[in-house]
Amino acid sequence: MWVYLNDKFVPQEEAVVSVFDHGFLYGDGVYETLRAYRGRVFKLAEHLARLERSASRIQLRLPVGPERLTDLVREALRRNQLSDSYLRITVSRGTGEIGLDPALCKAPTLVIIARPFQPYPESIYAEGVSVIVARTRRNLPEALPPQVKSLNFLNNILAKMEAKAAGAHEALMLNHRGDITEGTTSNVFVVQEGRLRTPSVECGILDGITRELVLQLASELGVPSEETRLTVEDLTRAEECFLTNTTQEVLPVTRVDGRMIGDGRPGGITRRLHASFRACRDRFLDGA
Ligand code: PDD
């Protein structure tokens, strides 16, 4: 496989970053996960815009602009002859002497990885997954804003370890007030009395690109929705629940902390939204 590193594509064995890279030393950097279907990257412009927002919030200048990044992402797919693909763009502060000051790094490190994507089995969409509410709280927005998709992912990793220990697919994290925020790599929605509800950005979440699309699709389907505060009780009493992200799309949740949500099967609104998501994606792929 070919990996883009700084200024050229290299074989993956040669795609090596210095131990003095501040991404490695301090988690100082940002990234995006993208998904290509049939060789075309879905929501590419939105991902590049979020990468730029994340970078600018940590005063990191991206080494190349969105047009060049677009070309590089497409080239990564082409060179690796990938159709269904997982792509990751990583930009770190770069290599520099040990020390927190970003000025120690002369230039950012840019990496683009493209991998074949193994879609999740349809059975998990048909059956739904289980989640837990993690003891690990989401980073305080005033400490490390969750809207920065940073390389510093320990907060999420600690919660993911809890999910794994409990045999659950995902862990949902609460904020400092005890409200639900999001999963370790996903946003969360519930349906209550036919109404779609999801934590607002103000609760301390990453403003997911799939989340945004799902809210738009809900409005097109005439499903009322609100961005709000959600408690654990809202979750356990919900008729339906699902997760969204770039790789999982719209994934039904049927158990929380071992308790069934609704009748324990993926709900009707969840299924309609996933079908609309796929229809929207297919229109994009067909160039409509
Ligand atoms: N994660 N919340 C967090 C903390 C995330 O890391 C992600 C994405 C999301 C969903 O965002 P989007 O719909 O734009 O993918 C929400 C990706 C998949 C990752 O880290 O690989």
Structure, explained:
The protein has 288 residues and is of the alpha+beta class. It folds into 2 domains: 2-116, Aminotransferase class 4, branched-chain amino acid transferase, N-terminal domain (D-amino Acid Aminotransferase, Chain A, domain 1); 122-282, D-amino Acid Aminotransferase, subunit A, domain 2 (D-amino Acid Aminotransferase, Chain A, domain 2, Alpha-Beta Barrel), CATH 3.20.10. The chain contains 8 helices and 15 strands. Strands 7, 8, 9, 10, 11, 12, 13, 14 and 15 form a 9-stranded mixed beta sheet that branches. A 6-stranded antiparallel beta sheet has the order 2-1-6-5-3-4. It is globular. Residues 33, 156, 182, 185-187, 206, 208-211, 244-247 line the site of N-(5'-phosphopyridoxyl)-D-alanine (PDD).
Topology readout:
Blueprint (H helix, E strand, L loop, with lengths): L1 E4 L2 E4 L10 H5 L2 E9 L2 E2 L2 H14 L8 H14 L5 E8 L16 E8 L5 H6 L1 E5 L20 H12 L4 E5 L5 E4 L3 E6 L2 E5 L9 H13 L3 E4 L3 H6 L2 E6 L3 E8 L2 E2 L7 H18 L3
Parallel strand pairs: 7-8, 7-14, 11-12
Antiparallel strand pairs: 1-2, 1-6, 3-4, 3-5, 5-6, 8-9, 10-11, 10-13, 13-14, 14-15
The site of N-(5'-phosphopyridoxyl)-D-alanine (PDD) has 15 residues, from helix 6 and strand 13.
Kindly list the characteristics that best describe this protein.
alpha+beta; single chain; 28% strand; six-stranded antiparallel β-sheet; globular; nine-stranded mixed β-sheet; 288 residues; D-amino Acid Aminotransferase, Chain A, domain 1; 2 domains; 15 strands; D-amino Acid Aminotransferase, Chain A, domain 2; binds N-(5'-phosphopyridoxyl)-D-alanine
